[in-house]
Amino acid sequence: MPHFTAGDDGFRIDGRPVRLLSGALHYFRVHEGHWAHRLAMLRAMGLNCVETYVPWNRHEPVEGRTHDVGELGRFLDTAAGAGLYAIVRPGPYICAEWENGGLPHWLTGRLGPRVRTSDPEYLRAVDGWLDAVLPEVTGRQIGRGGPVVLVQVENEYGSYGSDQEYLRHLVARLRTAGVTVPLVTSDGPEDHMLTAGTVPGALATVNFGSGAREAFRALRRHRPDGPLMCMEFWCGWFTHWGGAAAERDAGEAAAALREILECGASVNLYMAHGGTSFGGWSGANRAGEEHRGALRPTVTSYDYDAPVDEYGRPTAKFHAFREVLAGHAEGALPDVPPAPPALGAPVRAELTRWAPPGEVMDALGGAGREAVVPPSFEELGVDRGVVRYRFTVPGPRRALPLRVSGLRDLAVAYVDGVRTAVLDDEEGLIGDVPGPASVELWVESLGRVNYGPRLGERKGLTGGLLHGGQYVHGVRARGLRLAALTEEGALAAVRWRPAGGEEPGLYRGTFLVAGPGDAVLGLPGWGRGFVWVNGFCLGRYWSAGPQRTLWVPGPVLHEGRNELLVLEMDRAGGTSALLEPVPG
Predict the structure, then answer these.
(1) Model pTM?
(2) Does 156 participate in catalysis according to the annotation?
(3) Comparing C-alpha atoms, which of 568, 570, 534 is closest to residue 552?
(4) Would you state the pLDDT for residue 330?
(5) Which of 51, 136, 154, 232 does the annotation list as catalytic?
């Protein structure tokens, strides 16, 4: 079997020099039915390798219950079939603009800032995760006939912490588990990041979007020999709700890629194809240089202004990169594969049935809890979804300011059954309220922070409810997980009524398709919520923009009748949605 090694000046296979021309493609952001096409697109661009993260929280949403870790193995097999090497980044932390940076909510809720350290309880959980996922990797290493040539240790750790014992533990664990290919770290090209993020036993690589020569000089100050590699060449960027869509000039990005290759380095395009954060798994950032400011949630689309766009189409950047990469490829590049079939014709889906939020919560919510202070999402077992808090303001008392404290992230407030305020600040005013009064707060997570010192922060009403500066104690709380809506028999438990009006709640309908294929779904006039097609969660929509439609992979649709489910958290825009063929 081939032997892949890292020498002082580059990578080798059986002693022959090889340059890794890699592209990031996250299997969990691409429908499995499209894997082969997207990998063929990478090959046609001139790449010989694919890189993927592995999201721990997606594969272990409930502690001790791993789910379909074999998906990674199937993806690696598909990559091998496409003639690509593979780089695997199994975490435990991945960033990736993914919910909680890939860490499970049940772990960060319990440990807080002890995650990503050598804390014994954290390491026990990490070891369990690696025990579950690494068999999908070790048996598919290049020395055993598979595509895997590199495995990453943690991810950009130098941007976060300085616990070298933690990194050394991961290196030892990966080796004990049977990883024989070279291990790597990846960090920004700054001294403090490389000082804290590199570890003996792993090659060091750097991440950047431009300035390759300067970045590699920084790397050489810390590692004077070994292969040069940019593990993340940021050829695009991500987009936040309410912000502007990311865009980078194709010619300028191609020039930055050419500079990397002129340095004799290997490269991994981040992203080659971004895909979509299906299922409400988009993360969030905190504003400011120290990442401690206002929350900025990431849109559902992970198009990333990548050379292969969200729909799998080649862009101007694809063709510019293909031209650069062709000069470094072994042989002629394959032709660009044809696009998968598109939806045959536009279809309007009528949402004919509706259930109010309170009844949906009562039917599908988890076990309620009565407590003195509000429990967090984590305490209620809610990863993605909404929590309803119910309080009673005692009385009689005069009208005083009623405020929330420590709100994460967005709340709709009802006082005596009347919608009173929508709050999106951590400290927010509901209004002047006399007592006695009944108060409901519907709190929605907009995505857990995936990068920076506020990684792992709890969601919900984390401070409490204040009336005139006095805490209101005593609360009934109940959470609704997004996953609960697709559990077997869930929709049968909901009491449906005819849809109409603009009320929030759960909407349900059907539509007919002749000629299934790739499509986009629009909900013009609707506020904010989540969409499922045939039980597959497309993700969050939001009138805040800039994203206006949701991507519907063709393999999700059926010939004939299909089901549409919409959970609207704000205000419905009618009783229909429009599916259209993916733009050509």
Answers:
(1) 0.97
(2) yes
(3) 534
(4) 85
(5) 232
